[in-house]
């Protein structure tokens, strides 16, 4: 029985930064990572948020159909692959309406679980939070292997992907970290673009509201020069890298 009910944090009806065109975004509730810079820390616990049906989301999506026709629907989070059947069913129904589907994921999921969701996914927005294993762990509190295996799998099945990398001064801006990530991404066959997302602190107040310790309080935002330097490293390897709206 396909899950028709899932737990979401919120929806956004006019998203412009999570995939091509104007998009309807579903932010699912629950995430296995604990990123230091998480801009949605209230998305992470699986028991928070609210339960909704796929029918409800589709009815909301239908209301926006005229302006998302050239964009589509993105399921983000949180981590959508924590609710694979729910996410797949949203995408399947979107495809019935002729809408483009994008999955925004950290890739921290068993490939066997992700497979059926990917059948209904047109584009994967894959966040790779660092390349050096110890740095990846420091940023996310999980290990890197699962995400890299997902990246390789997406390349093997030639699933279109945008890679996203959050550039955090004094943390992920380690030159070797970026160079090694660029070397890895250059081996993938399916990457249409790589977005460098400059760190900013717009989510800080949410950490404070939740009473969580925010360890990046003294970290400055990523400067345009730092972003340009990172983009150049990716471009040197033939990757279509651009600067994007940060987190
Ligand atoms: S993967 Fe996204 S939602 Fe999950 S902790 Fe990291 S930034 Fe937050």
Automatic annotation (TrEMBL):
<dbReference type="GO" id="GO:0043365">
    <property type="term" value="F:[formate-C-acetyltransferase]-activating enzyme activity"/>
</dbReference>
<dbReference type="InterPro" id="IPR012839">
    <property type="entry name" value="Organic_radical_activase"/>
</dbReference>
<comment type="function">
    <text>Activation of pyruvate formate-lyase under anaerobic conditions by generation of an organic free radical, using S-adenosylmethionine and reduced flavodoxin as cosubstrates to produce 5'-deoxy-adenosine.</text>
</comment>
<dbReference type="GO" id="GO:0005737">
    <property type="term" value="C:cytoplasm"/>
</dbReference>
<dbReference type="GO" id="GO:0046872">
    <property type="term" value="F:metal ion binding"/>
</dbReference>
<dbReference type="InterPro" id="IPR013785">
    <property type="entry name" value="Aldolase_TIM"/>
</dbReference>
<keyword id="KW-0949">S-adenosyl-L-methionine</keyword>
<dbReference type="InterPro" id="IPR012838">
    <property type="entry name" value="PFL1_activating"/>
</dbReference>
<dbReference type="InterPro" id="IPR034457">
    <property type="entry name" value="Organic_radical-activating"/>
</dbReference>
<dbReference type="InterPro" id="IPR058240">
    <property type="entry name" value="rSAM_sf"/>
</dbReference>
<dbReference type="GO" id="GO:0051539">
    <property type="term" value="F:4 iron, 4 sulfur cluster binding"/>
</dbReference>
<dbReference type="Pfam" id="PF04055">
    <property type="entry name" value="Radical_SAM"/>
</dbReference>
<dbReference type="GO" id="GO:0016829">
    <property type="term" value="F:lyase activity"/>
</dbReference>
<keyword id="KW-0004">4Fe-4S</keyword>
<protein>
    <recommendedName>
        <fullName>Pyruvate formate-lyase-activating enzyme</fullName>
        <ecNumber>1.97.1.4</ecNumber>
    </recommendedName>
</protein>
<keyword id="KW-0411">Iron-sulfur</keyword>
<comment type="similarity">
    <text>Belongs to the organic radical-activating enzymes family.</text>
</comment>
<keyword id="KW-0456">Lyase</keyword>
<feature type="domain" description="Radical SAM core">
    <location>
        <begin position="17"/>
        <end position="237"/>
    </location>
</feature>
<keyword id="KW-0408">Iron</keyword>
<keyword id="KW-0560">Oxidoreductase</keyword>
<dbReference type="InterPro" id="IPR007197">
    <property type="entry name" value="rSAM"/>
</dbReference>
<keyword id="KW-0670">Pyruvate</keyword>
<keyword id="KW-0479">Metal-binding</keyword>
<keyword id="KW-0963">Cytoplasm</keyword>
<dbReference type="InterPro" id="IPR001989">
    <property type="entry name" value="Radical_activat_CS"/>
</dbReference>
């Amino acid at each position: 029985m396909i899950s028709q009910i899932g737990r979401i944090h919120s929806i956004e009806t006019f998203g412009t930064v999570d995939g091509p065109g104007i998009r309807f975004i579903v932010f699912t509730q629950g995430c296995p990572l604990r990123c230091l810079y998480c801009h949605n820390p209230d998305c992470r616990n699986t028991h928070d948020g609210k339960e909704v049906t796929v029918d409800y989301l589709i009815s909301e999506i239908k209301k926006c159909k005229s302006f998302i026709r050239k964009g589509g629907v993105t399921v983000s989070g949180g981590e959508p692959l924590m609710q694979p059947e729910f996410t797949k069913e949203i995408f399947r129904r979107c495809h019935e309406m002729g809408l483009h589907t994008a999955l925004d994921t950290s890739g921290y999921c068993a490939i066997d679980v992700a497979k059926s969701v990917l059948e209904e996914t047109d584009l994967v927005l894959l966040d790779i939070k660092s390349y050096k294993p110890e740095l990846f762990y420091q940023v996310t509190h999980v290990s890197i292997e699962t995400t890299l295996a997902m990246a390789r799998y997406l390349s093997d099945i030639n699933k279109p992907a945008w890679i996203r990398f959050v550039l955090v001064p004094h943390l992920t801006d380690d030159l070797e970290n970026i160079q090694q990530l660029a070397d890895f991404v250059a081996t993938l066959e399916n990457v249409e673009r790589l977005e460098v997302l400059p760190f900013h602190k717009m989510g800080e107040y949410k950490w404070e509201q939740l009473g969580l310790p925010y360890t990046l309080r003294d970290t400055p935002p990523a400067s345009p020069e730092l972003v340009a330097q990172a983009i150049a490293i990716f471009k040197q390897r033939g990757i279509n890298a651009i600067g994007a709206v940060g987190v």
